[in-house]
Design brief:
The chain is α/β, with parallel strands linked by helices and 512 residues long. It has 3 domains: 239 residues, FAD/NAD(P)-binding domain (3-Layer(bba) Sandwich), CATH 3.50.50.60; 101 residues, Succinate dehydrogenase/fumarate reductase flavoprotein, catalytic domain (Flavocytochrome C3, Chain A, domain 1, Alpha-Beta Complex), CATH 3.90.700.10; 101 residues, Methane Monooxygenase Hydroxylase, Chain G, domain 1, CATH 1.20.58. The chain has 15 helices and 18 strands. It has a 5-stranded parallel sheet with strand order 6-2-1-10-17, with helices on one face. Helix 1 runs parallel beside helix 11 and helix 14 crosses helix 15. The longest helix has 18 residues. It starts with 12 loop residues before the first strand and ends in a 5-residue tail after the last helix. The relative contact order is 0.17.
Length: 512
């Protein structure tokens, strides 16, 4: 069926077709809504790549209050307690919604839901499907529901600019090489993360900060940008993106060893199930010392590995590794961004007519270090919240529909962004390296190519990391190894703030 954009004018537009965006579209039904997605449905959404599952306090012996306490402890002082309470409190209802959509969560022989223990959780509360195929199965069920909902129009097009005066008026998109404007007064950004801006990442190639860039260009504040979570156990087999060795593998007793078989985390509190930032730094230290690192499940899991973790087993076998009898080579990789577009409890940004949900947003749930498997939970709860708020809002449409040309492609610029962030804004940072990153990113922002948008977000991340002169959660400064002397606080940042910091550094001798 041919879709004519003019026929869609005035409808709410959701940019992004991951879990947050599709749940929002289903929540808006039967109100007509447009979902704009860069790639065919389901192919480029990080939600479908999630292995661990959804964290929810639904089993006997657990409670939302315990889930909230674990979330706040992992967040290293920067979680918003009210947001945490609201989102984890909504987890049982979120699971009920997924069950209603037909998500086949794993159950025991008596039909009771099963849950895994993951890092920094005090109880087994991560519900999964097929051991390590949770994201894929959740997205399969949600996509089927979307495709069966007549009020949802799927538009394969990439958003490259938001049109706004005092409020949102439209979205400029590119489809089949042609740019066009879709007039609307209601936009939800659900574009996912930005781990693709690093050389070693578990994210899809399209995860390069599209949503934060769209919002930042309008002056919307971004927050917690310095907090990128590096998953400690990405499979180090040369693939790009890197497959993920689910945290549930360590939950089942697998250990981390060096090439000599030494278990280097044995004396760390909670050992391999310490918070992800702790494990990532420990793995990074081994790599920096010239040693290879492996995830060894041969004793704890052994012959159960293929049935317990079929997705990881398939990836390992394709790389010539039998996880039943062989340890798996791993390394940290950019995995989940705790920062993003600053939103309130309803997903509202600072601009009238613009909402954000999922990984591109920052609600205050994750703080400085996301608790494992809280991401899919947040996508569901906040996708629903934003959609309900949009349904109550009055939308306007743009009086003009003039096309905004898309910027020229710039693969070289994107490669340079990946090099700069990997070298200077990785697991460990310092002022000198962050200054070098800012110096290198400035010219990419200024040359107005397709790489300028992700370079702007990368620049803002580097500035935020330079401004946070302490080590907290996933942000580690080797030149500021302890917590700051003042109270813990989040650091909102605008594109104008980043431009001023770039200019200041240039004046100090950091000229491009």
């Amino acid at each position: 069926m041919t879709i004519h954009p003019q026929e869609l004018a005035g409808r709410p537009v959701i940019v992004g077709a991951g879990l947050a965006g599709l749940i929002a579209a289903l929540t808006l039904a039967p109100r007509p809504v447009v979902v704009a997605t860069k790639a065919p449905l389901g192919l480029d959404a990080a939600s479908g790549w999630a292995l661990g599952g959804v964290a929810a306090a639904v089993l006997p012996g657990d409670a939302p209050a315990l889930h909230a306490a674990d979330t706040i402890a992992a967040g290293a002082g920067l979680c918003d307690p009210a947001v945490v309470e609201r989102i984890v409190g909504a987890a049982p209802a979120a699971i009920d919604e997924l069950l209603r959509l037909g998500v086949p969560f794993d159950r025991d022989a008596r039909g009771r839901l099963l849950a895994s223990l993951e890092a920094a959780h005090g109880r087994p509360r991560v519900l999964h499907i097929g051991g390590d195929t949770s994201g894929r199965e959740i997205m399969k069920a949600v996509i089927a529901a979307v495709q069966a909902t007549p009020s949802i129009t799927l538009l394969q097009a990439e958003a490259h600019r938001l049109i706004a005066g005092s409020r949102i008026e439209g979205v400029a998109l590119v489809r089949d090489g042609a740019s066009f404007t879709l007039p609307t007064g209601l936009v939800l950004l659900a574009t996912g993360g930005l781990g693709g801006l690093w050389r070693h990442t578990t994210n899809p190639p399209g995860a390069i900060g599209q949503g934060p860039a769209l919002a930042a260009r309008l002056g919307a504040p971004l927050v917690d940008l310095e907090f990128m979570q590096f998953h400690p156990t990405a499979l180090d087999t040369g693939a790009d993106p890197m497959p993920l060795a689910s945290e549930a593998i360590r939950g089942d007793g697998a250990i981390l060893v060096d090439e000599a078989g030494r278990r280097f985390m044995a004396d760390v509190p909670r050992a391999e199930l310490a918070p992800r930032d702790v494990v990532a730094r420990a793995v990074w230290a081994e790599l920096q010392a010239g040693r290879r690192v492996f995830l060894d499940g041969t004793r704890a899991i052994g012959a159960r590995f293929p049935n317990r973790f079929p997705a990881v087993t398939a990836v390992c076998l394709a790389a010539g590794i039998d996880p039943v009898t062989m340890p798996i080579p791993i390394r940290p990789a950019a995995h989940y961004h705790m920062g993003g577009i600053q939103t309130d409890a309803r997903g509202r940004t600072g601009l009238d007519g613009l909402w954000a949900a999922g990984e591109c947003a920052s609600t205050g749930l994750h703080g400085a270090n996301r608790l494992a498997s809280n991401s899919l939970l947040e996508a569901i709860v906040m996708g629903q919240a934003a959609a309900r708020d949009m349904a109550d809002a009055e939308g306007m449409t743009a009086a003009r529909t003039a096309d905004i040309p898309a910027p020229p492609t710039d693969a070289e610029g994107l490669g340079e962004i990946r090099r700069l962030l990997s070298a200077h804004v990785g697991v460990l940072r310092d002022a000198d390296g962050l200054g070098r990153a800012i110096r290198g990113l400035g010219p990419i922002v200024e040359r107005q190519s397709a790489a300028s948008a992700p370079a702007l977000v990368a620049l803002m991340m580097a500035v935020a990391a330079l401004d946070r002169t302490e080590s907290r959660g996933s942000h580690t400064r080797t030149d500021h190894p302890g917590l700051g002397a003042g109270p813990a606080r989040r650091l909102p940042l605008t594109a104008a703030d980043a431009a001023r910091r770039l200019a200041s550094l240039r004046e100090q001798g950091f000229a491009a």
